[in-house]
Amino acid sequence: MAYMILFKVAITILTITFNKVSASDPDPLQDICVADYNSSITVNGFSCKRNFTFTPEDFASMGIAQPGEPNIFGTRVAVANVFNMPGLNTLGMSWSRVDFDPDGLNPPHTHPRATEIIFVLEGQLRAGFITTDNVFVNKLITKGEVFVFPRGLIHFSFNVGRGNATIIVAFNSQNPGVQVIALSMFASRPQIPDDVVARAFQTSVEEVRAIRARLVPTNVTMEHNQAIM
Q1: Is 107 helix (H, G, I), strand (E, B) or coil?
Q2: Mean pLDDT over residues 54-79, rounded?
Q3: Which one in 3, 36, 62, 227 has a CA-CA gap of 20 to 30 Å to 197?
Q4: Is 116 annotated in some ligand binding site?
């Protein structure tokens, strides 16, 4: 019961926080614009369902009620965004939930279209980001604490506690996008030439190929997976 109360408090805090700042997405031009997944019209986002064809279910989601699927980094990511909650279309908000195994890592990545704020629901994590001046900002955060990652900066969260950890994440975009640094460099499609990556990391082509072999075959499900790209 206490866990569920804290979970609801986390969602409330994050929602209020983002309601008090300007969203990174364009402002809506009407009260609601429920995403029409079946429309053939291509816009910056989704086109709207016709008036009165939406339902209350369009404005609700169980997307972060349970942990997501496990990935190779020791985390499970679940999302609530415009792709599974059509009522969020044009509202400039989305959420995710990240559950960490012991030593689980939400690896260095960026969101080009959103600032991210996290609320620690359970556990103890090391959270950090790197500025464009190459300054590393990091802090040990614990249950009940909030930490923010500025838009577009490389950041990560690492479970340093003895048990599992869970965070609730809010973005000021319905589609924040993501680039996981390791996957972008070593598992892009098509691949970046081996010699380019080797020169960038000052290592050998053989080592680049060895890293690719460990990353490319995996089906990596991230907090920021295809659902929120």
Answers
A1: strand
A2: 93
A3: 227
A4: yes
